[in-house]
Amino acid sequence: VGAIPEGLPAAVTIVLAIGVSRMAKRRAIIRKLPAVETLGSTTVICSDKTGTLTENQMTVREIFAGGKLFEVTGAGYEPTGEIQTGGSRVNVPEQPALAECLRAGVLCNDSQLVREEGRLKVQGDPTEAALIVAGEKGGLLHMETHRDSPRVDVIPFESEHMFRATLHDARAGGRVIYKVGAVERLLDRCAESLNERGEPAPLDKSVVHQAVEQMAARGLRVLALVRRQVDANHAKLDPSHVAAGLTFLGLQGMIDPPRPEAIEAVRKCQEAGIAVKMITGDHLITARAIAGQIGLKGREEEGKLVALSGRDLEKVTDAELPEVAERTAVFARVAPEQKLRLVRALQSRGHVVAMTGDGVNDAPALKQADIGVAMGISGTDVAKGAAAMVLTDDNFASIEAAVEEGRGVFDNLTKFIVWTLPTNMGEASILLTAIVFGTTLPILPVQILWINMMTALLLGLMLVFEPKERGLMQRPPRDPRKPLLTFALAMRIAMVSIVMLAGAFWLFFYEMNLAGETTAAARTTVINVIVVVEIAYLFNCRSLNHSFFSTGFFSNRWAVLGSLAMLAAQLLLTYAPMMNRLFHTAPISAESWLRIV
What's this model's pTM, rounded to 2 decimal places? Predict the structure, then answer.
């Protein structure tokens, strides 16, 4: 009973449960209790860009069609704005290539904009919603356009294909396939493009690539829009139908501004020694531009962050990948299976990895990561089921908040262990010493039960409510290979145990031989000295890095209330006749209390 810290399992569970409660208030739902402690040891966060680091409110800003660049005014999902060139409004029907590019964006689309409480809200993907708004700014109303060209079939978007295709009845007879997706996946399948007059013309891929790079350098996410005319008998869509012979219609570049709170959260994480890596399906140049706006740090070449695309990763061997993954901060056009490779590579270097994801295909990476983080709003049920944590607001700032809480939980867990072990070591050493030297036991088993039960409840658990220490996010992450109890903490525990042992034996013999007290009174003095040492040590354990005097006496009022309650319980144990009978104690003198203090 004396040697075993039987209150430890309950205290650990309570510490973690309170951590879960605190994280929930900061929009991070913990699904697996041990993840609370693991969060505090995180060394790398691999985060999606869209919606996590950015606002997830896409707005089309530029359109490239018919060899010309058009600007789109307005922001958000309200269709208040216009399409311009050179500062002048464009009459869209007079620009056939532009009109067809807008039509493709509206038709190859499964999202809707609905007005709720006076505001337009997206039902579906924000990227698709931005295409709908751009079309409406050009005069193509969503419902009317779909009514004029009803859909026949669809190939839904999948992250490994990076495109979506739909088959529609054409207004002039026949049918048409529209396809929207990543430029590099679509451009190579195009045989021609529409010129300014809307007529088929040879495709100059170098001009398109130049436009993509210029738009991406301005932080725009760029989508390519293409079509293919088919006959009226075409009733089913197959990937082979969109593999070649397409007509390039244009590009739409949209902006998704970084979240201000995510910029601050990234800064705090990097100050805390946590590497932040952005993994996105966007174009490489776009990803690098957004990373610069967010403030990501990593290896640079010619003043720019080094960024790798999914195609670059395919060429990297498993042996080379750990070093490449560690030094690179931005990964673009990454497939879900490559996320899994990155997690394993980082873990092989000893990192504790948090990985975000929302799709079904992200589940293996979320499962492999030390902390899988699923998106609560945009995430699938499969992703949430595989993750250890779910963000209710899909915001990177909530990950940083959870890491901070995790560090606080680990601190408090360590403080409780460092506080409780000397109690058990001290009690066990008192009994062992008495047995070795054949002396009267200074404390009885029932009295040990009282101390263990009451101090764990009224003293130790108060450390659970200890507020987070200052500078918590300025510390480097804890080395996961480092033991919980370092040599310094072990020496601290041993020193307190020796103080408890020496104090108990000195007072026991003093009370028995010099003060002339009964054995029961001497044992009561020993009980009280153990408790008072624990109270004094409790306040020393409120910080393992700073002096007790710098933490603020009342900053944890529960520790103060618990100590007062413990002293009241000791007075009952010492002076209440019923407690004297139950626990074999006896009243002690004021001089004894002075010696105890």
Answer: 0.77
